[in-house]
Amino acid sequence: MRHISFAICFLFLTVFCYAQQTLPDKIIGRIPDIANTKTFQIQVGAFSQEKNAEMAYLRLRKNALNPVIKKSADYSRVLICGIPANQVYNFLVIIKQSGFNEVIIREDIANENPENIPVVGESSNSEIERIMNSLSDAEFFELLSLMAAYPDKDLISLINSIKKQ
User: Which residues are within 8 A (CB) of 15 and not within 5 positions of it... i.e. 6 or more apart?
Assistant: First the structure.
């Protein structure tokens, strides 16, 4: 009996620890109950430099998410809006896989979605997305490292320099 109790505890701890690894390390707010009928937004970052917000946006797009960049006073927030409560956990797993370890979960009170959030560089987003979709994974990660190394260069010129190689 003692061995069975130990095995059950060990199994529980293993599953619990694995489940914790798939979520971001720091979650501000709480994961809503799946029966909740409200929608939520997840903020993955707030950046003082627009280029960093664009990098976060691109990392999320590469993982099939639909983020938006909302410009505030002195910073740009990267958000995923309009998430049904029963999908928040799934989005958190993908966000963690995208490399984000801290998020803020909020109720989407204004029912914000990509149609009514002013997006930074909205006119060029479609061109950037078209180009981004043509990049291989290796080219994408090279782009991220170039963006970090050359923060003053614009995104299109960095992409062009990768494509010329």
Answer: none
Structure confidence by residue, pLDDT tens digits, 92-120: 998 998 889 999 999 988 654 444 443 43
Q: What is the pTM of this model?
A: 0.61
43 belongs to a structural domain: yes
User: Strands 76-84 and 39-47: what pairing?
Assistant: antiparallel
Q: Which of 126, 159, 165, 123 is nearest to 144 (CA)?
A: 159
Q: Is the CB of residue 56 less than 8 Å from the CB of residue 21?
A: no
The span from the CA of 154 to the CA of 128, in Å, is 11
Spell 61-77 as b/e; 16+ CB within 10 A means b.
bbeebebbbbeeeeebb
Statement to judge: residues 129 and 163 lie in one domain: yes
List the Cα angle 35/38/43 in 5-degree steps. 110
Residues 75, 45 within the same domain:
yes
**Could you tell me the CATH number of the domain that includes residue 42?**
3.30.70.1070
